[in-house]
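Q: What would this chain look like folded?
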Amino acid sequence: MNKLIIGAVCSLAVLGIGCEVISFGNDCARMEASIEAQYKQNQNNYSSYFMTIKEMAQVPEMYAADLQKVYEGAIKGRYGSDGSKAVFQFIQEHNPNFDSSMYSRLQQAMQSGRARFESEQKMLLDKKRTYEEMLVTFPGSAVNSFLGYPKKDIASMDIVIDDRTAEDFATKRSTPIPLKKD
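A: My prediction, written as structure tokens:
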């Protein structure tokens, strides 16, 4: 009877450990998939941000070109083909109004795009930190090598930083940002 109880207890222990190992393996697989998906989302967000800015930046140029066409047509229509002699008179009569709000909207899009991208970057960092903690804390560290995790190159899925930041962190030096040219 004692052998039967010991056998049952051992079987339950092995089953419990097996379930934990499987659970850990599933957790690692989910974390790697989550990190990879977040990395791809960061790329998606980054690409969308720059495409939006590039597209919005074309609007003021198009507006200026269209405004020039309207004024050229109006000058020729009002003052004839030699209308250029009367350009100053036309400008005094109809002061051109260039809508600067387009630049404000472009600036707002840049600020919100950067903030959204920073948020996505923070999520990637948090997911990587959680996964790395899971791999190095017990029982994860013990089971990690048995299961072969990490299976994906998580280090290659890193955040995007600008050249100045990379240089400052490499040299451990920073300088003030020049706001005006001498």
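The radius of gyration is 31 Å.
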